[in-house]
Amino acid sequence: MSVRPRVRTKRRYRRWLPVLFVGVLAVLLLAFPPRWGFRLAGAVAPGATYFVDTPKPTVALTIDDGPTPQTTEQILTVLAQFDVQATFFLLTDPISRETATVTRIVTEGHELGNHLTTDEASIRLSPDEFEQQLKQADAILSAYGPVQWLRPGMGWYSQQMVQTAQAAGYRLALGSVFPYDTHIPWSGFTTWFVLANVQPGDIIVLHDGPDRGQRTATALAHILPKLQARGYEVVSLSTLFK
Q1: How far is Cα 149 from Cα 146, in angstroms, rounded to an integer?
Q2: Cβ distance 60 to 236 under 8 Å?
Q3: Alpha carbons 164 and 154: distance in angstroms, whole number
Q4: Any idea what DSSP says for residue 68?
Q5: How many Å separate Cα 33 from the centre of its chain?
Q6: pLDDT digits over 121-173, tens only?
Q7: Could you tell me the CA-to-CA distances from 125 to 68, 89, 152, 161, 180 in Å, in that order?
Q8: How much of the chain is helix, strand and coil, in % rounded to 5?
Q9: How does 47-78 read in b/e, with b if 16+ C-beta sit within 10 Å?
């Protein structure tokens, strides 16, 4: 009588082993995204840049969703402390209220990127709406200097969006180091994830905003000196591509 329950238990464990294996594999892929995954994504849906192949210890830092009162200023202060330049993908609707902050971004040598007008999934826009938002944002950002990089909202894009962006003189830039800071509200995790995954040529994606900007500033204060101690140079997108 004692043998049958053991057999059933072993069979139950064997049934769950594939599920456990897939679960562990998924966690590892999320925690340590492999370069081949981004290459595959670029091959399946061409037109976006995720990273640059280079042996030089250089990475691009990008900040999405600004400008935001106070938090953008805090991020800029940290970047100035470590003499780092970044690309700020700005939403243009708040810019009329934050012109001084945008001016500071440009004055301190950072690059502006187009993140359209509002924080929403660009893939849900009709082709006409996407083109309208792209041009509307471009008209505002171009007043501060040349803008050549576009990051669609939420990171999803179509080939139609790629063609529209290229016709307007833009290149799509996503990223290869994204510490899920839109969903995990902990600067300690952001710090760990970036330092655990960064490789030469990576594009790091962090976020500004009322709830995220403070965490980004805190994380960068820990990340930047450690990257520099490893010999990394942290630059804007255009500098990385040069």
Answers
A1: 10
A2: yes
A3: 18
A4: -
A5: 13
A6: 999 999 999 999 999 999 999 999 999 999 999 999 999 999 999 999 999 99
A7: 24, 19, 11, 10, 24
A8: 55, 15, 35
A9: ebbbbbeeeebbbbbbbbbbbbeebbbbbbeb
